[in-house]
């Protein structure tokens, strides 16, 4: 699938982003893909291309653009457990500086930019995401109910968005949890909040997984769980973003 680097205007300057889209022209439903904390890198570009191959225009923004263009830290080709703690220590200050105010300001800019692309079909878009991106995407969907028709978050701390954000969701939702990230109690509380808000959702634990299971460049990667991720994501998008 073709791909290119873009610059998205935001209230705090230009945010670099990667876009992937189908060959052959035409207009396609838009998908905003939030990366994990390690940001835009080959595995995220490949996932964007994979999704674009199913007929979507996918944009992956640099979430921490205020700190510079991606990559913001030097990443190895493979993020093993021996290097992960030091890498997390480098990105954590950027995560902590990314306030809810910044998240929502950027979300408005990203969605406005995505919908304005000539290759993107009119109508609402979807937001999909990984790890910390899932929290940001949940807040995005809650704050932009008329613009986001689908939300899919994987191994993400979505419960941290809080009951208020969950209660404002109008998108259809899928939350795919790592087995190591949630307890039965926390999962029950999250699902009860979604039920109480009348959200159309699925929320499930992917068996035998640990945090980061979709990321093929990490020790957490689980190819079976990645396949289940596509099995859940693609039907959700097909239901909520009908193609022209």
TrEMBL record:
Q: What residue stretches are annotated with the Dienelactone hydrolase domain? A: 16-239
Provide the coiled-coil residue spans.
none
* Domain of life (superkingdom): Bacteria
Name of one Pfam family that matches: DLH
Q: Which GO terms describe its molecular function?
A: hydrolase activity
| UniProt-listed PANTHER family | CARBOXYMETHYLENEBUTENOLIDASE HOMOLOG, CARBOXYMETHYLENEBUTENOLIDASE-RELATED
Q: What is this protein called?
A: Carboxymethylenebutenolidase
């Amino acid at each position: 699938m073709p791909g290119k680097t873009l610059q998205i205007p935001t209230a705090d300057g230009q945010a670099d982003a990667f876009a992937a889209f189908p060959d052959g022209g035409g207009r396609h439903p838009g998908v905003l893909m939030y990366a994990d904390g390690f940001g835009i890198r080959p595995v995220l570009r490949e996932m964007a291309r994979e999704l674009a191959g199913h007929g979507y225009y996918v944009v992956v923004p640099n979430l921490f653009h205020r700190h510079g263009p991606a990559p913001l830290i030097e990443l190895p080709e493979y993020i093993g457990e021996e290097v992960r703690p030091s890498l997390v220590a480098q990105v954590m200050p950027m995560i902590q500086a990314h306030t809810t105010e910044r998240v929502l300001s950027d979300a408005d800019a990203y969605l406005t930019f995505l919908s304005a692309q000539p290759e993107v079909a009119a109508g609402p878009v979807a937001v999909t995401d990984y790890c910390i991106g899932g929290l940001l995407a949940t807040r995005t969907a809650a704050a932009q109910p008329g613009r986001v028709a689908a939300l899919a978050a994987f191994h993400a701390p979505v419960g941290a968005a809080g009951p208020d954000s969950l209660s404002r969701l109008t998108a259809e939702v899928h939350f795919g949890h790592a087995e190591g990230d949630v307890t039965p109690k926390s999962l029950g509380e999250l699902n009860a909040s979604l039920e109480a808000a009348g959200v159309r959702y699925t929320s499930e634990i992917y068996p035998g997984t640990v945090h980061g299971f979709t990321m093929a460049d990490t020790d957490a990667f689980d190819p079976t769980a990645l396949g289940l991720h596509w099995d859940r994501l693609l039907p959700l998008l097909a239901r909520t973003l009908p193609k022209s």
